[in-house]
Amino acid sequence: MKAAEIRKMKIPQIEEALMDARHELLNLRFQTITGQLTDTSRIRFVRRDIARMETILREKQLAEMAEESEA
Q1: pTM score, two decimals?
Q2: Where do transmembrane segments lie in this chain (predicted)?
Q3: All domains of the chain, ordered by start, with CATH?
Q4: How confident is the model over 26-64, as pLDDT tens digits?
Q5: Is 57 exposed, middle or buried (0-12, 13-18, 19+ CB in 10 A)?
């Protein structure tokens, strides 16, 4: 998922996508351990997506906090 796509999402949507990505990472780890995973690079992409979502989520949360403190 690209950063531009994530930035268009609202906070609850990002949190939901983040939970899905974490669940996918867990499944990929299990598949790696059991030897079922053929595309090991997928783990790297999912981890980067998670980091990207967490970063943008934090940016949005800080922006909300700044707006609340101004009001």
Answers
A1: 0.90
A2: none
A3: 3-70 (1.10.287.310)
A4: 999 999 999 999 999 999 999 999 999 999 999 999 999
A5: middle
